[in-house]
Specification:
The complex is a heterodimer of chains A (about 110) and B (about 120). Chain A has about 110 residues and is mainly β. Chain A has no helices and eleven strands. In chain A, the strands form two sheets. In chain A, strands 2, 4, 5, 6, 9, 10 and 11 form a seven-stranded mixed sheet that branches. A four-stranded antiparallel sheet of chain A has the order 1-3-8-7, with no helix packed on it. In chain A, strand 5 and strand 6 form a beta hairpin. Chain A is globular, with a radius of gyration of 13 Å. The N and C termini of chain A lie far apart (about 35 Å). Chain B is mostly beta strands and about 120 residues long. In chain B, the strands form two sheets. In chain B, strands 2, 4, 5, 6, 9, 10 and 11 form a seven-stranded mixed sheet that branches. A four-stranded antiparallel sheet of chain B has the order 1-3-8-7, with no helix packed on it. The chains are: A mainly beta (about 110), B mainly beta (about 120). Chains A and B meet through strand 4, strand 5 and strand 10 of A and strand 10 of B.
């Protein structure tokens, strides 16, 4: 199985900060990597697919980058509503696997 | 937009079989792949498997011996069965739509399944 190592597992940042979350894969994924946001009790919401394509309707402060084995989700200017858990999904190889998640809190 | 809704029992006895159904609305079940994912309390997400409209499946090898999936296009729904349930199978179970090349786009709200006597 492809292992997805996501970091950090938790973080706290202030409104307006630039935030970066990373997923590292144990094997190359090309660009078969998606990012999701999940708030408590809610279904996950896709933010980014194909590593860097912004999902329609998602604010442009969210961006994704990377290819191969290292991928990054960036929030350029953190907003209060961005408090959530973020996780990545690789769908290049079966079984598909997820990062362990990053819990982002607003200071 | 596409909506998915899981249904099934919230409690399953140890050694019992879990049966979950996911109804797809505001979208066609006749294309894409239809996926099950679970998340044990306080832990990460685990991909269980997927099925396409033709009934072709791909399962997680860690669960393959215990799972089966089916699709009912006439009812616009797909289903998961997981047998020999243990406490380790306690989790929130999600159904989702998978688009080839793009990954999961839509998720259901999730349903908590507890394994307990």
């Amino acid at each position: 199985d492809i292992q997805m190592t996501q970091s950090p597992s938790a973080m706290s940042a202030s409104v307006g900060d630039r935030v970066t979350i990373t997923c590292r894969a144990s094997q190359a994924l090309y660009d078969y990597l998606a990012w999701f946001q999940q708030k408590p009790g809610k279904a996950p919401k896709r933010l980014i697919y194909a590593a860097s394509t912004l999902q329609s309707g998602v604010p442009s402060r969210f961006s994704g980058s990377g290819s191969g084995t290292e991928f990054t989700l960036t929030i350029s200017s953190l907003q209060p509503e961005d408090s959530a858990t973020y996780f990545c999904l690789q769908h290049n190889n079966y079984p598909y696997t997820f990062g362990q998640g990053t819990k982002l809190e607003i200071k | 937009q596409v909506q998915l809704q899981e249904s099934g029992p919230g409690l399953v006895r140890p050694s019992g079989t879990l049966s979950l159904t996911c109804v797809v609305s505001a979208g066609s079940i006749n294309s894409h792949w239809w996926t099950w994912v679970r998340q044990p309390p306080g832990r990460g997400l685990e991909w269980i498997g997927e099925i396409n409209p033709s009934g072709t499946t791909n399962y997680n090898p860690s669960l393959k011996s215990r799972i089966s999936m089916s699709v009912d296009k006439s009812e616009s729904q797909f289903s998961l069965k997981l047998n020999s349930m243990t406490a380790g199978d306690t989790a929130v179970y999600y159904c989702a739509r998978m688009i080839s090349g793009e990954g999961i786009d839509y998720w259901g709200q999730g349903t908590l399944v507890t394994v307990s006597s």
